[in-house]
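Question (not urgent): is this output format expected?
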Amino acid sequence: MILIVLDRIKFKLFVVLLCHMRSSFSLSLLYHAYVYLEFLILACTIYILALAILILIHNQQFRIDAMLKQPNCPFVLFVGTRKLVKRREFEEYIRHKLVI
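Got this back:
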């Protein structure tokens, strides 16, 4: 969805550049402007995807932390105030769950 919107924006900006620059600049300048525009679109896409991935990771971290706070959780071991996760039991729990 985001990529479709970015492609539409890129096309509209290219048409505006073409109409504006055709009268006063050479086509090589138009090409360089288009390449720069491609670079900007790519940078924006990477930035948006990185933010989306960070949000997903952040949400998963809170879900797992909420699971670990449940009383009598079978894969948590408390050592003083530290909370340790028993890896084998946790992997077994994850293997049997469809949705966390």
